[in-house]
Design brief:
The chain has 288 residues and is mainly alpha-helical. 54% of the residues lie in helices and 6% in strands.
């Protein structure tokens, strides 16, 4: 509702209310991930932000013709959350890092090839696919019967560029490798990164570097640590102001340059919260 939205985007707002919102969302993500029955998400449109959290963690992710996935959070001074710390590093090669740092979109063909979706089902066949599920057909059997090929897109086609550049250990080195590559794809990726919040880029890269070794629950606790610090900073609110409220597209990021983001600053964002850690005990115990 409007009260919740205003609480989330108000820099002088009630941080407890903000964190209550994210806590509830992250717990829901864990519940979906641990849900013991088939959880089928048929995605035939844009899937971003909270939509990612309620769809991609289920047991079956089906991409329709209109599938368009993106994690554009670094463009508003935020970070890829709702489980991105877990699933982006597990995509093919360094494509998860590319998606997290550029906010680029992945369509159906790329989604299936990279692991964002299990299968593509053409839009005209989705009603019959859903009807088969409602009639009791086993999910895997229905997917096998209705799936169709989807042509790989620019992400798969540029895997070599992505893997070479986004395997670098720092944002600055990624940018340098993209510049050295010189292809149109690399130039566009660098341009997109240049518009993002430098601190958010550094946080997102750290997420990609640590996320592959984390369980889903550990990843969600990590994200709650990050959001607990982000909501007390300035970049998220400045990003929302510049892109959503005033729409001047001129955010004043702090720090303004990636070179001015220190490792200590990023370390502090990822530091444990002590008694304020995200409590997932009830969810995990129920799943066990």
């Amino acid at each position: 509702n409007e009260r919740v939205v205003r609480a989330v985007i108000d820099p002088a707002g009630d941080h407890k209310a903000q964190l209550d919102f994210w806590r509830e969302e992250y717990v829901l993500n864990v519940r979906i991930k641990n849900y013991p029955k088939p959880y089928v998400a048929v995605i035939d449109g844009i899937v971003m932000g909270g939509g990612v959290g309620v769809s991609l963690h289920g047991s079956h992710r089906i991409a329709g013709d209109g599938f368009a996935f993106a994690m554009p959070e670094v463009g508003i001074g935020f970070f890829p959350d709702v489980g991105a710390t877990y699933f982006l590093p597990r995509l093919a090669g360094r494509t998860g890092t590319y998606l997290g740092l550029t906010g680029a979109r992945a369509k159906a063909g790329d989604a299936v090839a990279l692991g964002l979706a299990e299968a593509h089902v053409a839009r005209v066949r989705i009603p019959d696919f859903v009807a088969a599920l409602e009639a009791g057909e086993a999910v895997d059997a229905a997917v096998a019967r209705f799936r169709s090929e989807a042509a790989p897109g620019p992400i798969v086609q540029n895997r070599a560029v992505i893997d070479a550049a986004f395997s670098a250990s720092t944002v600055s080195e990624i940018m340098a490798r993209l510049a050295a590559d010189g292809s149109d794809f690399a130039r566009d990726a660098a341009k997109q990164m240049g518009q993002k919040a430098p601190l958010s880029l550094a946080v997102a890269l750290r997420q990609m570097q640590v996320g592959a070794a984390l369980s889903f629950e550990e990843a969600m606790r990590t994200e709650f640590r990050i959001v607990s610090r982000i909501c007390r900073g300035v970049n998220f609110y400045e990003g929302v102001r510049a892109t959503i409220i005033d729409k001047d597209q001129k955010p004043a990021w702090k720090p303004a340059r990636i070179e001015d983001v220190s490792a200590a600053e990023v370390d502090a964002i990822f530091a444990p919260l002590g008694a304020d850690e995200l409590d997932l005990s009830a969810v995990v115990e129920k799943a066990a």
